[in-house]
């Protein structure tokens, strides 16, 4: 691709063998390209971002899930989009163009669409997919957003976009197809929905 890159893998003590696979990749591609930076236990997504940023040497950071729900084939499109509009953030969207979700049941799709719709109505964020995490950030923009964001869990991604708009950062979008993980289960239950609604109302009151 001609793009200088490094892959930073943050693993919070997951039992699925992620670290072992990452070590094998490190041997194949070298420790300058594959940086395994594990943590002893699950400490949350926001702190994982901060942990990863400490080791990132580039000007841009792409955040993605490592279970291939987010396909790497979209990364060149993110980069093209960023260059095209000199955007501070490029966000993958499941809800625009030919974007979509595969492998979710109707309940999960309704929850995600409902969450997105509510957020659009209350916050008018200027982006079509607020709860996805497949995004490209200018490094200094990500650092500024991490200083501002206080949410945990499902609301965190949404707050990142809302704060970005608040601070005047520019956002581009690339349609992506999201494929639900093949192994393991997503933990979206009643507690997550309640905390999402609380977080949404907090953002509504403070932005």
TrEMBL record:
Domain Glycosyltransferase 2-like positions: 4-145
Regions annotated as coiled coil: none
SUPFAM superfamilies on file: Nucleotide-diphospho-sugar transferases
Broad EC category: transferase
InterPro entries referenced in this protein's UniProt entry, alphabetically: DPM1-like, Glyco_trans_2-like, Nucleotide-diphossugar_trans
Domain of life: Eukaryota
Keywords, comma-separated and alphabetical: Endoplasmic reticulum, Glycosyltransferase, Magnesium, Manganese, Metal-binding, Transferase
Assembly and interaction partners: Component of the dolichol-phosphate mannose (DPM) synthase complex.
Record family assignment: Belongs to the glycosyltransferase 2 family.
Protein name: Dolichol-phosphate mannosyltransferase subunit 1
Source organism: Sitta europaea (Eurasian nuthatch)
Gene symbol of the encoding locus: Dpm1
């Amino acid at each position: 691709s001609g793009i200088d890159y490094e892959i930073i893998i943050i693993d919070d003590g997951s039992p699925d063998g992620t670290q072992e696979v990452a070590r094998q990749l490190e041997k194949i591609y070298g420790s300058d390209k594959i940086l395994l930076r594990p943590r002893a236990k699950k400490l949350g997504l926001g702190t994982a971002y901060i942990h990863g940023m400490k080791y990132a040497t580039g000007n841009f950071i792409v955040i993605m899930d490592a279970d291939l729900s987010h396909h790497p084939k979209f990364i060149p499109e993110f980069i093209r989009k960023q260059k095209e509009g000199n955007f501070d953030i490029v966000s993958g969207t499941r809800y625009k163009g030919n974007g979509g979700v595969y492998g979710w049941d109707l309940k999960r799709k309704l929850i995600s669409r409902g969450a997105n719709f509510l957020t659009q109505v209350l916050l008018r964020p200027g982006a079509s997919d607020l709860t996805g995490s497949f995004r490209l950030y200018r490094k200094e923009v990500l650092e500024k957003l991490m200083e501002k964001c206080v949410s945990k869990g499902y609301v965190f991604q949404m707050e990142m976009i809302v704060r970005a708009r608040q601070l005047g950062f520019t956002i581009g979008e690339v349609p992506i197809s999201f494929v639900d993980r093949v192994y393991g289960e997503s933990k979206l239950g009643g507690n997550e929905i309640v905390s999402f609604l609380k977080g949404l109302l907090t953002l509504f009151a403070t932005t």
